[in-house]
Please model this.
Amino acid sequence: MSDCIFCKIANGEIPSNTIYENEDFRVILDNGPATKGHALVIPKKHYADLFEIPDDVLAGAVQTGKIVASMLKDKLGCDGVNLVQNNGAAAGQTVMHYHLHVIPRYENDGQHI
Ligand code: 5GP
Ligand code: ZN
Model:
C-alpha cells in the first residue's frame, strides 16, 4: 500500500526508532508511548488487521512480541507487560496496518490499558 505510513516505516523508507528487526517484522518505539518502552511489532507486508493477517504471520507477530517483551523486561526492569492489538476504528485502531503493541508496565504507572 503506497500511502500507508506503517508500510513505509516497516520497509525502512521512513526512518524510525527500531529496537528489533527480523525477516518479516520491524519493531519500533511508539511515538506516543503509553509507558516507557512502548513498542509496536509491524509486519513488513501490509495487512489491515487481525482478519486479514494469515495465521502463520500472526504466530510470527506474537513470537516477535514475546522476544521484544523479554528484551524490554531485561533492559527496563518493568514489572509486567501488556500485548494489545486493536481491530477497527470502533476498537481504537488508528493506523490501518496490523500492529501488535508491546507495553511495559510498572507498579503504579497509572495506565488503564
Ligand atoms: P492503534 O491505535 O492503531 O492501535 O495504534 C497506533 C499507534 O501507533 C499509536 O499508539 C500511535 O502513537 C502510534 N503511531 C502512529 N503513527 C506513528 C508514527 O509515525 N511513528 C511511530 N513511531 N508511532 C506511530
Ligand atoms: Zn501498510
